[in-house]
Amino acid sequence: MGLRDLLKKKQGIDAGDGPDPATVQRLNAPEFTFVRSDTYTEEVIHPPGGPAGADNDDASSYLTVDSRTGKDKSRLSLDVFRSTGHARTRSPSVSSSKSTGAHKRLSQRLYLSRSPVGSDNVPANLPEIVTPADPEEDKEGQELQWEKRATMLARENEKNRTRPPTPVQDTVQELAHMHLGDGSSDDAPPNWPFPGSPGPPAAPTKGVVSSKEIDQNIQEAIRLHEEGDLEQSTALFGRLADPKGANNPLSQVLYGLALRHGWGCKPDAAAAVNYLSAAASNAATIEQLALQAGLKKGGAAKGELVLAIFELANCFRHGWGIPKDPIAAKQYYETAANLGDTDAMNEVAWCYLEGFGTKKNKYESAKYYRLAEKNGNKIIGNTWIWKEKYNPGNGKK
To answer: Per the record, where are the segments of Pro residues compositional bias (predicted)?
Structure first.
């Protein structure tokens, strides 16, 4: 019986008609609202009969959903660099989308679907990670293995991409004159990397992580961005990212994100992938030198490498500027997760949970969700991960 019929019966009772015991019991029953939610969405689940006003008789026999929220959560600012320098809001996530299980194939319902075979974006000789019986036993050794994997992924990805061209924008020249003028402006940091700046910039070196001058320029670009001057901020990031100029990996990541989302420029997802790939390759070169020198932990470019790997994973996952590749997305997420990126921990956990680019494995999923929560990036509604059966050692990999 729908709400409309219940109300009619209630009006009849109030008017003095004989009460129907079943109706009275239903009218006096406590009211419950069932809500299904995750980080970005909140949905009210209605019992059979649907919400008030539903005219579809066929739908009245099923649960119905009324979505309250669920807005796109695209990255809109440079929050990526506040506090820790690499904490950021999550990109739009497939994991927050609603499942349409009623239309799944029979093989999917019975978990008989074949796992992916391979990916052109993942090296065929990618080594397996050797994990000791006690994960706490050799953390540095494990990090060394994941860093080697990150450098291999970055180099393989670079082979499949073209080197990004030198950014050419009229706003670059305008910004140069605005900040530099005749070279005497007090606001211009030393060796500002624009045409007309006092003295020629230093010769570009592949994989230059940073310098005092580059750091000052990056901070200025971030300031411009946060003040809403996206066009000038992006132009400056473009100059710092120029492979024939500063060739700075962090700026290449930032310029790639600007191109992806259209921050002060025309969106160009394909070019964004090229700059993110260049950032990963440059940072991997620096890290490889550190590993060859005998370091077990990341060198000066670890943050840039992890950030680029994570953003490339998003590209492979969503098809931003590149064909979708679930296998590559999962491998990139897992690599970034094991190098400390908490967003990547949640994303690879979702990959294992849903079988995206890998076989379904709730034990591995729970492991990464727990790791993310331990590091301060909790996902609402993940209480299932703490069930005893998902404790380490209980599951089969």
So the answer is: 190-203
Q: What is the DSSP string of 127-179?
A: PPP---SSTTS-HHHHHHHHHHHHHHHHHHHHHTSPPPPPP--HHHHHHHHHH
| Residues found in the chain | 397
pLDDT score of 371 more than 80: yes
Q: What per-residue string of b and e applies to 347-377 under the rule 16 or more CB within 10 Å gives b?
A: bbbbbbbebbbbeebbbbbbbbbbbbbeeeb
| Chain position carrying tokens 């305008």 | 174
| Torsion of the alpha carbons at 183, 184, 187 and 192, rounded to the nearest 10 | 20
Listed range (115-129, 193-207, 312-326) with the worst mean pLDDT: 193-207
Query: How is the chain split among helix, strand and coil, in percent rounded to 5?
Result: 50, 5, 45
The residue with tokens 């689940």 is 45
Q: To 5 degrees, how large is the angle CA 136–CA 141–CA 146?
A: 105
Segment 11-32 shows an average pLDDT of 61
Determine the pLDDT at residue 218: 94
Host H or E run for residue 14: helix 3-14
Q: Please give the backbone phi and psi of residue 337, each rounded to the nearest 5 degrees, phi first.
A: -65, -40
Token pair of 197 as six digits: 């700046």
pLDDT score, position 338: 94
Q: What is the pLDDT of residue 3?
A: 59
Residue 41 CA to chain centroid, in angstroms?
A: 17
CA-based torsion, 379, 385, 391, 394: positive or negative: negative
Run of H or E residues at 287: helix 269-292
